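subagent[fold] <- orchestrator: predict structure for attached chain, return tokens only, no commentary.
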Amino acid sequence: MANVALYNMNGEQVGTIDLNDDIFGLEASEHAMHMAVVQYLANQRQGTQSAKTRAEVRGGGRKPWRQKGTGHARQGSIRAPQWTGGGVVFAPKPRDYSFKLNKKVKRLALKSALSTKVAENSIIVLDELKLDEVKTKAMVNVLGNIKAEKALIVMDGVNKNVMLSARNIEGVKTASVSTINVYDLLKYNTLVVTKDAVAKIEEVYA
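subagent[fold] -> orchestrator:
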């Protein structure tokens, strides 16, 4: 089992914690992580882009000039794509970009991302993360104590004070065990996770 340091909110090491190799010690599957990120980004797309084809642009029902004898190229409509104000040849239309991944692939991708953080020494485990009040400065101090920059903070549940204290800090995002995803794990340089969250991750994904 991988063994990492356990810190308190002051940045002091208070012990160590063993991590399950089946979740935090896998050989990372780059393909699975890539597919998970592509799916996440595709699912974020609204798919509302739309433009009109020549059939949908108003006007253009009359042939602008006769077929022959004018010296101009033959034209059938002033709303053809080559005309200013004409329709778009292959106009984008509203569509759903989302797609599904197999559950096994999604689990492998998440485990691979977590294992990558451990392999890169980019994971910081805290014995607890609690704030008595909503205070951004207090959260900044905690992150400074543990030397975490551009961090994803994962908790075992919803901690309102921590979430509200961290939301205005640039490059910091909070999440619960149930909402973590591969995209965020790879996007943020440091994974800050509480001891209870580690236990819940191992329980859910074991």
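orchestrator: received. Logging for downstream: The chain has seven helices and six strands. The mean pLDDT is 93.
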